[in-house]
Amino acid sequence: MSKQTDYAYEYVKQRILDGTFYPSQKLIESDLSETIKVSRNTLKKAFLKLEQENLVKIEKNKGATIKSFSLDEIMNYLEVREVIEGLVARTAVRNVSDSNLAALEKTLENMQEHIQTKHFDEYSNCNKAFHDIIYNASKNVQAVEMIKGIKTQLQRVHFKTILVPGRTEESLREHTQILEAFKKRDEQRAEEAVKFHISQIRNTIKTNYLYLV
Fold this sequence. Notes:
The chain contains 10 helices and 3 strands; from the N terminus they run αβααββααααααα.
């Protein structure tokens, strides 16, 4: 993609993920073209890339609309993610280094601090960093790419789960269990801990779906 197309793609994608653009919202090419100072043809190219990532839906003669996921679709994605995350955890345990473990421990400490100060954005960033350390320790690049694709599509909903009362504390306990399994280099326990964590995310979304979408 050209630099302009890249810029348009990143501009729209960021606003989809942070909730500025909401599910089922129609993207008006003329307005966006004027706002971000690119041609409508450039926007169309950006939309095609976003469609490939399942973030927008393009219909003939109707243009692009922000993708909206049903509860069943979200549950299906998370079931798939649960299985793949377990696989990645197993391979990561085999390759995790002492420096990786130290980074996980430090990140977990930061997560606890952010809960106490109610800095939920920072907690979310540390949550992502925690999992990225595990992904980087895994040698299954293809599985990690699948997970990241699912996480990108569901980021809008997933982020809001930390606002559900009690969820951050539960999440911290789940990450603590994951870390303990990694410190023991116990593949089965790590897989079970990660899968339990994802299942709890799924349960939280299922219970609070109307609030989160």
